[in-house]
C-alpha cells in the first residue's frame, strides 16, 4: 500500500507559488532507498502515472522493487513509497502515486495516451434511453485512451450524439468489453466520425488490466520520445 508523508517548508503552503508548468519537483535532487541500499539522483520527468529518476546506480534496482523516495524541491521535502516499473540506461521509471498528482502539472485527472488499437461497437443506447440494435457489429479504431475514457473513430454515421451510451468490445492485447457515454462527437477531415467517451462502471478486473495497459504505454512512449530526442541532438 502506498503511503505519503511530507516534511514541508513554509514555501509549500503558499498558493501555487512553485507550481510552474514544469511542476515543482522536476530537476530536484531525489534520494531513492530500498532494503539495504540508498542512492541519489535527479527527478527528470513527471507525467501521467510515471516519474523518471536519473541516477548512475540504476542497475542496483530491480523491476518490482518497493522504494522510498525523498524529493528535495524548492517547495519542501516530499517523502513517499512507490514501485520501480521500468529501467533505462541511467534512469529508473517509478509509479507516480495518485496522491502526488497535485505536485505536478497535470492537464487532466487521467491523462490519455495515443494508441492504435481496434474494436467493435456492439450496441447503442440513445440519449433518450431507447436502444438501437445494430444489424452488424461496427468496426472502430481506438486513437487515445485513459483509465477513465476513450477516443475512437468509425466510418459509418450512427446518428449518435452526446449522452448516448455505447457497448464496446476493445482489443488492447486483452479482451475488454465495456460501456461508455459519448461526451464529444465530430466529423474528421477524411470523412470518419470521431467520438470521445467516458467509461461507465468498468468491472474491477478490466479496470486493473486497463490501468496496467495505460502504464505500459506511458513508459513505452516516454522511452521512444527520449530516443528520438537523443537522435536529433546527435545529428544536428
Automatic annotation (TrEMBL):
Q: Which residues form the PilZ domain?
A: 130-215
> What's one GO MF term for it?
cyclic-di-GMP binding
- Superkingdom field: Bacteria
Q: Which SUPFAM superfamilies match?
A: PilZ domain-like
Classification via InterPro entries: PilZ_domain
Query: What's this protein's name?
Result: PilZ domain-containing protein
